[in-house]
Every structure is written in C-alpha cells, then in structure tokens.
Amino acid sequence: MIPAADTAAAENAVISIRDLKFTYEGGIQALTGVNLNIRRGEYVAIVGGNGSGKTTLAKNIIGLLKPSSGTIHIQGAPASGQKIASLARVVGYAFQNPDHQLFCSSVSDEVRFGPLNLGCPEQELDRRVQHALEIMNLQEVKDKPPLSLTLSARRRVSIASVIAMDPQVLIFDEPTTGLDMRESDGLMASIGNLNVEGRTIILISHDMKLVAKYARRVVVMSEGKVVLDADPAGVFSDLDVLLRSKLVPPPVTRLAYRLSSLGVPREVLSPEELVFRLMQARGGAR
Amino acid sequence: MDKTPALLLKNVRFRHGGSTDWALDDVSLEVHKGQFVSILGSNGAGKSTICMLANGLVPHAVKGDLQGTAETFGEDVAKKSVAELSTRVGMVFQEPESQLFCMSVEEEVAFGPENLGIPRQEIRERVEWSLGLVGMTGYNDRSPFSLSGGQKQRVAIAAALSMRPEMLVLDEPAYALDPLGRIELYKVLRELKDIHGMTVLLAERDAEEASLYSDQVILLESGRVAARGTPREVLRDTALLASLGITPPQMCEVSTLLRSRIPGSSFLFTSVDEAEKAISDEFSVGRRRGTP
Q1: Cis? peptide before B59, omega within 30° of 0
Q2: What is the band of A51 on the pLDDT scale with cuts at 50, 70, 90?
C-alpha cells in the first residue's frame, strides 16, 4: 500500500506530489491520483506498461503539462506558480527522442544553449559545458553537428545539454531505447556518476533488467497511479502487482521464485547473485 | 520438395551510396522456408541492411553498391521491384507509429491488398484472417492511435499479413513495447511459424527472446557473420555475445556462471523451465548428500 502523506517527509522531499490528476484534451485520464515523495540524492525508477502515465507524470513535474488537480512541490515551493524556465534550474528532463531537443550547429553550442538562456555568467558557463561534455564522454565530438552523430551520441548530447543547466534532479525517459548493450552500459555508468555527484535521478523505463541493475527504489505505475513503491527486491518479488501492471520480472528473478526450496531468496536481481545464493545455500547445507 | 531458401545471401557486400565502409562485408547465409531466424548484433552491425535486402528496399530505395548473390525465394532482389517482392515478403519496422497512418484498423490492414486491386470480398476475408492471427479480431473500427503500443505493433503485423506473404521480416519489432507487449508479440510470431508455416526473420540487439523462440540464430559483427547455429549452440558463449555488444540471455549467463563455479559440470539452458529442472536436479542431490 501507499504510505500515507507524511508532512515531515514531504518537507524533506525534493519533489512532493499530492493527489495529482491529469486529463488530456479529449478526455483520456492519464493520471488518476498520484502521491509520491522523492528525496534528495535518490535513484528512483518509475516503471509501468505503455500508457501507464509515466511520461505524463514527468511532463507535469517539469511544468510542460499543468495538473488538472492536485499539487506538485519542488524543493518545498509549489510548482504551479513557477515558470518552466525556473523549474528547469531544479529539474532537468531528457526526452525519449533526443532529436526533439537538438538544433544547434555544434555539440558544444547545443550544450551551452540551456545555461546561456538561464543567464549563467560566462566563466561558470565554460565550466558547466566542460563538465557536461566530460561526464557524457563527448569531448571528441564537441565541434561536430549533433544531428550527424549516432543515436547513442545524440542521446548523450541531449543529456549533456540538460546537465549543463545544473539541475538537482534529472529525469531520464527511456534513456537506453535503441541503444545496444555497450552503449547502454556506458550511458548508465554516466548516469550513475551524476547520482554520485549528489544529483537525484529519476529513471523512467520498462526495461526490467536495467531497473533491477541500477535503481535503488522502484515506483510501479498502472492506470495513472502508483500501485507499488519499494526497493527493487521488494518490487520484483511481488509478481501479482507486476503482471497487473504489464510488467514481467527479469528471467533470473522468475527462476529464483521457483528455486525457493533450495534456499534461494525470491528477490534475486542478477545472474551473479542467483549463482552466489545457490552456492551459499549448498555450502551452508554441507 | 522445393528446397529453395526463403532468403539466400552468398558473398554479399553492400555499401551505401557515397560511403566507403561496407555495411555488409561478405555475408553468406540462408533462411529456409518455415524457419524462425534471429539476426543479432549491436547497432551498426548490419541487421537492418539484411532486413531491407530481404524485401528489396536495399538496393531499390536505399541505393548503393551491391555485390554477390541476394535472392528471396530464388529470385534476384536487384531484378525484382519492391512491389513484386512485397507480395511474398512482409516487412515490419521498429516503431508501429512510423507505418500506421489510416483512421481505422480495418483501413490500415486493407490498405496493401486494396493497392493490389484485389476484389472487395477477398479483402474483407484477408482483413479478418490477419486480425485473427494477431489476436485483434473485433478491433476493425478502432483508431490505430487509440491502441496500446503492443496492439499497434500487432496491427502493423496484420497489415503485413494481409498481403499473404510467405515470409515476415521484422526489424527490432519489440523496440517500444512494455514487457507484456514483448511477450505477446513473440508468441504471435511463434504461432505464425508453428501453425501457419510462416518464415520469420527478425533482427534484435537483445538475445533474451531470440533464445526462446528461434530455430536459428545468426550473430553479426561489423557487417560480417560472426557465428550461426541453434540458440543453444550460439548463445552459450555469453562472453562472445558481450564482446559483440549483444545482451546475453540471462539463463545463458546463469549456465555460464554455474559451469565456471562447479568444475566438470555442463550446465546449458535457455529457458527458465530448463534452468529450474537442471538446477533442482544438481542442487537437491548436493543438499541430500551434504545433510547428515
């Protein structure tokens, strides 16, 4: 069950959402009452099937969509009165399709554009662009036109341009879609580094292997609301809620369910962990 | 029996117009009729080029330098038009949105055969048949845009099926689908193969589903065939997969780890069912032996 709204928790939260509802023009109810607190420095995955409301929620948080009812507080201040530009200083959003946000003639101009627009002073600007290019591994292509790059590099450019605005919270919407394993591992390592720097990471994905590997908290959405909110182990051991949310745990977790008589816990998240638990259970029995 | 392969590539090289790099570099492979074949590789390995060769988009729409032999059902793709090939080879792309454009599911599925000038009654039959195969009967009047991602992709497949192709070619069809949508999609493809004898050729970056549903797996590396065989033969080498940038199936990773941890063992499984049985056999005995 969803924990009751706790005032103290809401005050400490970098994002606090109460009874958020959103209906698109034409009547589709995309959010039907979301309650969620996200604390500073967390690494949260928001998961759910196609059409469960994940992207709509993100767009409400960044002010691109206005709630039909309910409230969103960003660092304690109501989001409703704030301009998108001022929210962007706190919460950055990397779109699913990077080409939606790329338009400059070089990678470094692209990355510079956001903070420049926010009125960032010159010297600070250089430092931020430099840091964003470094963390996203874009040094070598910084003078190239973004649209000439591979999908993987274009996605890193779009993320670098968000990082350069120095937001406390970063929302990544399906960041690994279309990337192969190497590209995906590289990108996720960079996102991990952003979290180590103290930034709050919100990862929107329906790739369960990815979520199991990287997130420390998993919020499951279904039909426009939060139906489960726990650590990955807790979420992946609740098969009923997952299936009702059009999600399926990774194969290794499904195998762990079936090996409980051998002493394997239900919440195994990786092949390495499964084999470790098996060997441990066998060693312990001897 | 006619042994002509559905797709035959012999020493095929292809480079895009203006490019000096070969997208395909001496590729030889066959896809036999009635087989489910998965082509796996990282981005840029040449998967999409092979898919587009199968229905003639390469070299007719995507121009370039094509060398070697490329035949679908015994006919040279370079000498046939895409329109002719499309009656035998149906194509489904990554994102259903990019190929759905009609106001209703029915119009969408009827579009191909209508363009062939097929009589109305037969079109109606083909629409019902195609929607039935993908589990979308009764959705005729719905707008494709009101459907879930998985349903959209199944409509895109129905639209390809209404041409009554002998082979379906799918380029990362599960790209934008949620986990249940992926499973539904692969089940439909496997049924098309098992029940209707359809030849299925599929490109993927993640080997998870390929390990469960394919008869044959082909690994690509920079435009070359790196390995081919049954899923068990090819996917057991998880280190090779990782070095090619292909996500290994988790059950193959578990078998590789167990082989290295238990000397002399020969674990090899691709499905959760197989894994459960093999591990229970090994570890239950081990426990009984060890417990006083």
Answers
A1: yes
A2: confident
Residue pLDDT, tens place only, A168-212: 999 999 999 888 899 999 999 999 999 999 999 999 998 899 999
User: What would the mean pLDDT of A130-144 be, rounded to a whole number?
Assistant: 93
3-class SS shares of chain A: helix, strand, coil, % to 5: 45, 20, 35
The span from the CA of A26 to the CA of A188, in Å, is 37
pLDDT at A9: 61
| A/B interface, count of CB pairs below 8 Å | 115
Cβ–Cβ of A248/B180 closer than 8 Å?
A: yes
DSSP H/E element including A228? strand A225-230
**List of residues 6+ apart from A120 with CB closer than 8 A:** A128
Q: Would you state the structure tokens that stand for residue A270, as one six-digit string?
A: 């990786």
Q: How many other CB atoms are found less than 10 A from the CB of residue B190? A: 17
- Cα within 13 Å of Cα(B58), Cβ side: 25
A275 to chain B, closest Cα gap in Å: 7
Closest Cα in chain B, distance from residue A17 (Å): 25
Those residues of chain B that have pLDDT short of 70 are 1, 285-292
Q: Give per-residue pLDDT as tens, A240-267.
A: 999 999 899 999 999 999 999 998 998 8
* Global pTM value: 0.87
Instruction: Using the Cα atoms of residue B44, residue B46, residue B47 and residue B50 in order, give the sign of their dihedral.
Output: positive
Q: What does the block give as tokens for B206?
A: 């993640």
Nearest-angstrom CA–CA distance, A124 and A116: 10
Residue B239 sits at φ, ψ, to 5 deg, of: -65, -40
| Beta-strand runs (E) in chain B | 7-16, 24-31, 36-40, 64-72, 75-76, 89-92, 167-171, 199-204, 216-221, 224-229
